[in-house]
Model the fold of this input.
Amino acid sequence: MSVTSGAETAGSVLDDFIAGCRAAAGRCPDPADCVQDVAPLMARLIGGAHSFLKPSHYRADPAHYARNAIYLAPDRSLSLYALVWLPGQWTPVHDHGSWGVVGVVEGVLEERAYMSVDGEIRRNEGIRLKRGGLVLLPPGAVTSFVPNPDHIHRTGVPAERARVVSLHLYGRMMNSFHEYDVERGTRRLVDVPHQDS
Done:
């Protein structure tokens, strides 16, 4: 299901971004090549974000960060969301099962990485993770990730910082991810809801 139709965004920076991403995904069998091609497109997209973001894309939820769909490919090969983070909101520790590219429109998004001590994760228990680095992503920043091994992290906004709005493109319909319990050494697949915009 496409949340935005071509007629609504004809000639827009968003249409150009989607077309470029679809072309990149079609010609790049390696996820690392996809993110390399898509990252510059994301930089242009966030530069023109105010030309296509609607009030519904800025919806927040006081209970947790909000995922507002911007584009969902009919073939489920791509999905683009505006994530809105209020102060103090964080994701759980999770992976993506996909390649992805993220760009920050507003605020400073914080990413805390985790690494598998034992290499590739093949089971849902006995997982040993250790904390990795920290990245602060200000407005205009673009970051990316690839699967196998999956990029595992926790993302959010400390309570003392202002709201963040970020755009997240995934190389699949991003409706689930593995959530990790670092202390117990387990993971489970969970549904990740979004709001249509």
